[in-house]
Amino acid sequence: MRPINAIAILPLCLTAVGAASTLFRGGTVVAFNKQTQGLNVIRGGSVLITNDRITGVFTSAPSKVPAGTEIVDITGKIITPGFIDTHRHGWQTAFKTIASNTTLIEFFGRYSSFVAPFFWNATDVYDSQLAGLYEALNAGVTSSLDHATHTWSKDASSAGLQACIDSGARVFWGFTFANITGLVTVEDLYPVIREMAKKPGLRNSPTTLGIAYDGWGPNPNVAEINKIMALAKELNVSVITTHSLQGPWGFNNSPEDIHALNYLNISTPIVFSHASFLTPAGAALLRSTNQYISITPESEMHYGQTHPVSYNIQDQASLGIDTHITFSTDILTQARIWLQQTRYERYLDVLEQSKLPRSNPMSAEQAFLLATRHGGLALRRPDLGIIAEGAKADLVIWDGNSPALLGWVDPVAAVILHASVGDIEAVLVDGKWVKRGGKLVAKGWPDARANFLRTAKRLQAIWRDMPMPEPPAEFNGVPVVSPVQADVLRGPGNGYGNVYI
Ligand SMILES: *[C@@H]1O[C@H](CO)[C@@H](O)[C@H](O)[C@H]1NC(C)=O
Ligand SMILES: *[C@@H]1O[C@H](CO)[C@@H](O)[C@H](O)[C@H]1NC(C)=O
Ligand SMILES: *[C@@H]1O[C@H](CO)[C@@H](O)[C@H](O)[C@H]1NC(C)=O
Ligand SMILES: *[C@@H]1O[C@H](CO)[C@@H](O)[C@H](O)[C@H]1NC(C)=O
Ligand SMILES: *[C@@H]1O[C@H](CO)[C@@H](O)[C@H](O)[C@H]1NC(C)=O
Ligand SMILES: [Zn+2]
């Protein structure tokens, strides 16, 4: 036995009375090497967890483990850290599949928190948020930063936060301060967030309170921002997040905007979702203040926020999902899309000079780090997204014998380029099993499924009967025009077809 990071196992059983330990023995461990800041693949390795933490990583089975340790044989399997999603709107799950060809402008006017609260009640928010979190856990996403736009009332806020707690997932729940015409103002929400901070069960759950805010610029209300940032400090929030697009979209909320107000260079992490048109000055600010962006590859392709400069800021980037109602909720898919998109772009640079590439511009290891470790860095939680002694026991076990993975040699390539959610055999958050034997075992799942189905059916029928709005001629003063539609049919017609809701 050779411990990777020197640890003393024996004292564990003396000090940690009643501690629950599990040893995952004999698998391929995709561990993290703090010296090289890279991956450390250990074949025939073992991982010991005690309560919510990883307490040992070994190159072979340790000869001594704490008394009462559960031994789990993972021979032939791959064990990785859980994935981290740094941008999500989890409450929206009930809209799943009803907006497959929607646009971003239509989304705001039809599916967003500026419309939904007039039809959704607190039970709907709870059911929808919970089902979405089980979907994410099933997909190996153990942590997520939720830009929680469902905070339009005390009841709706409380319901969504309760769902996070009940799910067992590690949710950085970003309470959203927004004005919703005809319903609520930012002013009304100060007492609501204070109440959320006191929610029973929050302290003992992996979920923490954060803040989401999209009013940084242009034309910020400085008094409002000062008040929100004072609350951020008073409530010791775990993270602040904002939608940042710039370019033709507007929604600046740029690093420059926040820095101008003296709130960028702070100890609290600030995550900029998309940052599609980040400027070189904004990128320099992210680096000097160590703040991160969340690239949401599938969202940015689906809606056209795009990501023309994100290739250049991957050293300050993590990966996110955004609206899981319109596409996959798994960070594995995001990592794969982003890897190939980066390769495509970097190859194009070469081809456009009428030359050919002699090397591959991005590796599977880099995509793996973005999907795991970088989420932890964005949240300033170096104990998340890695397998190393002292890290949180948020783990995924992959079935190495599945048809997709059979014959694998490189476990990182196997996961990033060949696996799917169906190959995830087990998931643990904070050392607790949420998926095992390929099935969700979280105790709330059967009820959550039944309740969600009822809720989703009712809400989907309301939206089916809601007339489609005409797109506006302008958005934030920018003309709105039709892109060229794809044509997949020979001859007349293009095959655009219909939606089936
Ligand atoms: C929300 O609406 C559903 C369907 O009408 C109902 O069953 C449920 O009790 C309502 N929940 C609340 C909190 O009003
Ligand atoms: C909320 O409304 C106030 C008053 O109109 C405005 O000054 C403020 O900028 C708004 N905040 C956001 C985040 O839109
Ligand atoms: C604030 O939260 C951090 C974790 O996000 C924790 O380490 C720290 O102890 C908290 N501080 C206070 C004063 O509660
Ligand atoms: C942020 O603060 C650190 C330490 O206080 C300082 O060294 C750095 O220059 C600051 N960066 C910016 C952009 O203000
Ligand atoms: C989506 O497709 C449906 C059916 O063809 C169409 O009615 C709708 O206008 C489309 N929506 C958008 C935003 O393209
Ligand atoms: Zn978003």
CATH architecture classification name of the domain at 83-383: Alpha-Beta Barrel
Main sheet overview: 9 strands, mixed
What is the SS-derived class?
A: alpha/beta
What percentage of residues falls in helices of 4 or more residues?
25-40%
Bound molecules: 2-acetamido-2-deoxy-beta-D-glucopyranose, zinc ion
Strand content: 15-25%
Q: Extract low-pLDDT stretches.
A: 1-16
Average pLDDT over all residues:
95
Q: What is the CA-atom radius of gyration, in angstroms?
A: 23 Å
**Separation of the first and last Cα atoms:** 58 Å
CATH topology of the domain at 83-383: TIM Barrel
Q: Work out the number of β strands.
A: 19
Q: Globular, elongated, flat, extended or rod-shaped: what is the shape?
A: globular
**How many separate helices?**
14
CATH class of the domain at 83-383: Alpha Beta
Keywords: Hydrolase, Metal-binding, Signal, Zinc
Cofactor: Zn(2+)
Protein name: Amidohydrolase-related domain-containing protein
Organism: Apodospora peruviana
What does the model show?
This protein has a domain at about 85-385: TIM Barrel (Alpha-Beta Barrel). Strand 11, helix 8 (about 280-290) and strand 12 form a beta-alpha-beta unit. Helix 3 packs parallel to helix 4. It is about 30% helix and about 20% strand. Strands 1, 2, 3, 4, 5, 14, 15, 16 and 17 form a nine-stranded mixed sheet that branches. It contains 14 helices and 19 strands. It is globular, with a radius of gyration of 23 Å. It is of the alpha/beta class and about 500 residues long. Bound molecules: 2-acetamido-2-deoxy-beta-D-glucopyranose (5 copies) and zinc ion (ZN).
